[in-house]
Amino acid sequence: MTTFFDTVYVAFAVDPYRKGLTRGMLALGLVALSIPVVRAQDSLASRQLDAVVISATRSERALSELPVPVTVISQQQIKNMGSLRLNDVLAEQTGLTLVSDHGTGIQMQGFAPEYTLILIDGEPLIGRAAGTLELNRIAVGNIRQVEIMKGPSSSLYGSEALAGVVNIITDRPAGTSGTITTRYGANQTTDFSGTVNYQREKLGIYAFANRYSTDGYDLTPDTDGKTVSPFTNYTYQTRVSYDLSSRTKFSLSGRYFTESQSSVSSIADGSDIALLDGKGTVKDWNVNPVMHFKLSDKWKTTLRFYHSKYSTTSTLNYRTDGAVYDDTYFDQTFLRPEVQVEYFVNTRNVVTLGVGRIWESVAATRYDNRMTYQTNYAYAQYEWQPLSKLNVLAGGRFDQHSAYGSQFSPKLSAQYDVNHWLSVRGSFGVGFKAPDFRQLYLNFTNSTVGYTVLGSEELLQGIARLQQDGQIDAMLADPATFGELKAESSRAYNLGVKLVPAKRVSVSLNAFRNDIRDIIDTKPVARKTNGQFVYSYYNLAQVFTQGAEMESSFMATDNLTLSLGYQYLVAKDKAVIDQLNAGEVYARDPETNVTRRVKANEYGGLFNRSRHMLNAKLFYNDEAHGWSATLRAIYRGRYGFADMNNNVILDDDSEYVKGYATVNLSVAKTIRKSLRLQAGCDNLLDYSSPQYIPTLPGRLLWVSAAFTLSKKNKSTL
Amino acid sequence: MKSILKLNAAMLFLALTVFTACSDDDDDNTPVKLTASEVKDLNSESTKNFTLFSFANGAVVANTDSVSSKWDIGFRGTTLVLNGGVSGPGQAQGQIVSGIFDELKEAPADGYTADSQAAKAIVGSGTSGWYTYTGTTSVPNHAILPNAGKVIVLKTADGKYVKVEIISYYKGNPSTTTTTFADLATRPLSRYFTFRYIYQPDGTRNFESTVK
User: Fold this and answer.
1) Are A490 and A430 in contact (CB under 8 A)?
2) CA atoms of B69 and B104, how far apart (whole Å)
3) How far is it, in rounded angstroms, from Cα A336 to Cα A305?
4) Rounded to whole angstroms, how far apart are CA atoms B72 and A657?
5) What residue numbers bound the domain in which B177 lies?
6) Pick from A78, A80, A128: nearest CA to A101
7) For residue A584, which residues of chain B lie inside 8 Å, CB to CB?
8) Record's InterPro entries (chain B) (predicted)?
9) Does A647 contact B at CB distance below 8 Å?
């Protein structure tokens, strides 16, 4: 049984001071938060509570003892759903929705994708376009579990962990086995995965390789080019662990990802239409050596080193003569050494301290030079159990940044177990998001339209240069008033309960409120002689998001589980509310075009936020006969798309996209524990909306087969 | 709507709806309630000449009278001129105020400017102007949408006060939120103004009633 876990962690998990950890470790991987995958021996609730979570404390802790809400999605659940990429997994989770802006990201508690930190084994993935980290880059075939922690976690992770954290925990060496998985689906989508597991006493090796390719799809056949162009990508991931001694463990992880895409598009060329052939590549790699030292029963030290690079290229060539229309590149690096020390004072007190430094750099077509910045940081965390029923987690992190002001991010959370079926928990935290390279250093002029965007550090020089060149027609704002960019920051409150009202039922409720200030926005600084504008970044908006979330599961029989999730969300701009209350917001009646005053209750809040989101899922799992099946329905309520009546805010019915549901189905049969056949249908109802939701293809059918070979005939399926 | 007048003025077609307050043989001093008049589809298609309009007559004025005080405001695409300053021999001045047409009971006492070389009194695009050009960044693309909550207040060529709300820049005052409008192929012709106004003939700044 112990080989199921990374040997590196097992030594620490069997800690005399924290019984909960041991209990959690034994259950790890065999249980899921909401989906039981082993036959019921005890109640659903107790198994749910036994999941082990890393994200909340940066060390393995039993979910039951954590005072913060964390959702854990197990490998088994991911397999049963037939998910291939991280976006497939996250799309179905309560309170999350996929949003598309230069890639597919997730919206969490009403925050845009740039405010959620995406980690692989606790280390940040880099490479965001306009703030969005493309989730399609992440294959899930090697994922042991996905942890979703909502609410700010800058107290541990620093910048970007403002809405929350998604931590992808990859598989670790366990036993000796190999798996091959193939899948074919609509749009010529093929997926091949292979894993190799090897383990000797001290040495463990895990390797994963994946090839994913698709022909894309076209929701607008009458235009040139496809909605999603064909692409192929490869993911390689490996982890080697070695026990240097009983107290010293070493592990080395690495990831390499490469993707190429080809596209066709057209532009107006005088009175003609010219066809352009596009080629794009994306690459990222990272390497992550970690040393664990168990100095004594009370002291643990972890040394982490993480280096990652992300680069893209994109070219557009005229089809007729191959001449270059556009040629751009982007190149980002991230390097971070970190030391973490844990001190187990006694069973009820654990202190964690960490210190590190980050070097980041970006070079790109849109930047003048390679831009660099550094962050020094230190964090501290205190896990305290003053009463057997009370768990308190307090922490804080200080970030000192080379390009903008320092940040202190505290967080305090607590959970009280009122009785065996009711726990209450709450937290307060501060999160922040540093201005990114684009907001600081961008120097970009759109070659076709002619507008210019300048980062805050480039603004004064850029304007002076444009003025010298005679390109400025009129100044619209004093560049000096834009000032130095501050980090965006948020104060967040979460309050919730966990309930086990009956033997096979569990419910968790959480209410949240986030007050965000200094949101970075763009506004025009000057009008150019070509009639276009020069834009720059500034801190302005104050926004809040608030709502409530419910997750529940009900185990109808030993084999059948039903889960329900719901989020209610309100996200509004405080300045707009003030204007509405002052009666200063107007709209034109869509029929008569006559101006009228917009009432406060007509304000729909921020665009792209659904007030209601709902999911209902059925999981069937008959291990004795090798059958499993899932049926999942995800509903996204109506949301604002764009201002149609020219008053900037969301207030008119014509500005909303209708609510819609997607239903996904999968069935799997495992034969002799080594062959697993699976078939599924995504978007069973064939819902699509080319105008508003180009990222949603129609109905997709797929089939897959997985073959596992393992020593001692032990299946990892 | 009490009466509808249709008239052809010069070569321009203009449908003009006039709300007339019927005053019988009342005392001359009794204030008469002012009601809005609406001009539909004023054609400003010419890229050369301004289409000139007189608020006192509620009618288009021939271009041959451009060097007179017979007109108050001129339209040529999105450019609006007032008969004063560099644009004409009259005394017209104007400004754009934020608010709702019906709620503006009185013209502001000051803040008026005349057309100058540097700028027109009635600003065109932008948040302080009368319209927004949507460009490619918002739906509908490439549309001229009058800014909501902007009332043009002006003094006519002979110094009378008028308030004006520009309602549409497109022929037939179409809804701008439809797919028909969003599609450039099916969008109605531009440069056709629909607007409503209240003209105060008695020289006061009051927009509610007038004394004969």
Assistant:
1) yes
2) 26
3) 6
4) 44
5) 3-210
6) A128
7) 98, 149
8) HmuY (IPR025921)
9) yes
- Tens of pLDDT along A246-300? 999 999 999 999 999 998 888 777 778 888 899 999 999 999 999 999 999 999 9
Q: Beta partners for A197?
A: A177, A206
Angle subtended at Cα B195 by Cα B192 and Cα B198, rounded to the nearest 5 degrees: 155
Token pair recorded at residue A238: 């490996």
DSSP bridge pairs for A423? A417, A498
A644 touches chain B (CB under 8 A): yes
C-alpha radius of gyration, chain A, whole number: 26
If you measure CA to CA, which chain B residue comes closest to A583?
B99
Q: Is A305 exposed, middle or buried (0-12, 13-18, 19+ CB in 10 A)?
A: middle
Most confident of A428-437, A675-684, B30-39: A675-684
CATH architecture of A2-713: Beta Barrel (2.40)
B100 CB neighbours in chain A (<8 A) are 586, 595-597
* Straight-line distance from the first to the last Cα atom of chain A, in angstroms, rounded to the nearest whole number: 15
**Residue that is written with structure tokens 């991911």 in the block:** A78
Number of residues that this document lists for chain B? 212
Helix (H, G, I), strand (E, B) or coil at A391: strand
Q: Which of A593, A595, A644 sits opposite B100 (nearest CB)?
A: A595
Round to whole Å and give the CA distance between A185 and A191: 9
What is the rounded distance in angstroms from the CA atom of residue A305 to the CA atom of residue A252? 10
Provide the β-strand partners of residue A509. Answer: A497, A550
Give me chain A's average pLDDT, please.
86
Name the nearest CA neighbour of A406 among A378, A384, A426, A385.
Answer: A378
Cβ burial, residue A24 (10 Å; 0-12/13-18/19+):
buried
Banded model confidence at residue A50, pLDDT cuts 50, 70, 90: low
- Best probe of the A interface among B147, B175, B193, by most A CBs < 10 A, is B175
Contact B95, B111 (CB under 8 A): yes
**Nearest Cα to Cα of residue A485 among A442, A444, A533, A434:** A434
* A595/B101 Cβ within 8 A: yes
pLDDT tens-place string over residues B86-144: 999 999 999 999 999 999 999 999 999 999 888 888 988 877 789 988 776 666 788 89
Q: Give CA–CA dist A272/A687, Å, rounded.
A: 35
A645 vs B contacts (CB less than 8 Å)? 148, 176-177
Give the bridge partners for A183, in sequence order. A191, A704
> Which residues of A, range 441-460, sit inside 8 Å of B by Cβ?
449
Task: Judge residue A272's burial from the number of C-beta atoms within 10 Å of its C-beta, 0-12 exposed, 13-18 middle, 19 or more buried.
Answer: exposed
What percentage of chain A has pLDDT greater than the value 90? 60
Q: What are the pLDDT digits (tens) for A616-668?
A: 999 999 989 999 999 999 999 999 988 777 778 899 888 899 999 999 999 99
CB-CB under 8 Å, A645 with B149: no
Number of domains making up chain B: 1
Q: What is the DSSP letter of A223?
A: S
Cite the DSSP H helix spans in A492-550: none
- CB of A364 closer than 8 Å to CB of A331: yes
Tokens of A677: 């056949």
Are A595 and B101 in contact by the 8 Å Cβ rule? The answer is yes
φ, ψ of residue B90 to 5 degrees: the values are: -80, -170
- First CA to last CA distance, chain B: 22
Give B152's Cβ-side CA count (13 Å radius): 30
Helix, strand and coil content of chain B, in percent to the nearest 5, comes to: 5, 40, 55
Nearest to B121 by CA among B89, B158, B85, B69: B85
